[in-house]
Design a protein that fits this description.
Structural class: alpha/beta
Number of strands: 9
Number of domains: 2
Largest sheet: 6 strands, mixed
Distance between the termini: 31 Å
Helix content: 40-55%
CATH class of the largest domain: Alpha Beta
CATH architecture of the largest domain: 3-Layer(aba) Sandwich
Shape: elongated
CATH superfamily of the largest domain: Response regulator
């Protein structure tokens, strides 16, 4: 997992440090409040549910309280969600998880509240330009995509694969390329068609794209959208 300015250890250290200082002062520590914001449902069997599961894991961390909001669009609406969590719920940490939340929304709110820590999944942090209270994290999922591509390359009988993608952002493009490189490492003649739906949660378009790829002779389907549910159902 990578991070521009903060990481998981920073988060846990902050929680533990706050508790230790409070105990040393002879008082019960105030909870560290972390707010999670998702752009889709938290039970999507995909991206948002993974973050929601991470939030639930924090229940075992002493003096940490979490809250969440689902189905927040990548618009100024997320700014209002962040401000509400800060003012109404006392959040000192905001995890704005969707790619489109970062610029300009998280960056703008982070400048307004320099005492609040903001964590964002998948964006790019510009050292010396962006606020220092913004951290970036992301997993090395392109490595797993390469391995999945190897399995796909050995599985396909037609030699044609299909990839349903949401948006052509760097992480998605990296996964598409990794999947293809993995497939060609074991099957040099394999081909792949890619269809972009335009957004993270568009189940109707995801179904149409998947069906269209199958009609074109694809016998292996994969994708990078908010949830794999529709692609799996079509398959």
């Amino acid at each position: 997992m990578t991070c521009a300015s903060h990481n998981r250890r920073d988060f846990l250290s902050l929680a533990a440090g706050s508790a230790i200082l409070a105990r040393a002062a002879g008082r019960e520590p105030s909870p560290l409040v972390a707010g999670f914001i998702y752009n889709g449902p938290k039970n999507d069997l995909g991206y948002n549910q993974a973050h929601a599961d991470g939030r639930l894991a924090l229940k075992g961390v002493a003096y940490v309280r979490t809250l969440e909001e689902s189905n927040v669009p990548e618009t100024v609406a997320v700014e209002e969600s962040m401000r509400d969590m800060i003012h109404q719920d006392g959040a000192s940490i905001i995890l704005a998880t969707s790619y489109g939340f970062l610029d300009p929304f998280v960056l703008r709110v982070a400048r307004e509240y320099p005492e609040i820590q903001f964590f964002h999944c998948g964006g790019a942090y510009r050292d010396g330009v962006d606020p220092k209270n913004v951290g970036i994290y992301f997993g090395f999922i392109d490595e797993v995509e390469f391995m999945a591509g190897m399995a796909a390359g050995l599985t396909t009988r037609t030699g044609h694969m299909g990839f349903v993608a949401a948006k052509p952002i760097p992480q998605v493009l990296r996964n598409i390329n990794s999947f293809m490189l993995g497939a060609r490492s074991v099957n040099p003649t394999v081909t792949m068609r890619v269809v972009f739906t335009g957004d993270w949660v568009l189940p109707v378009r995801e179904a149409e794209a998947s069906s269209s790829l199958v009609d074109q002779g694809v016998d292996v389907l994969t994708g990078h959208t908010g949830s794999p549910r529709v692609i799996v159902q079509i398959a």
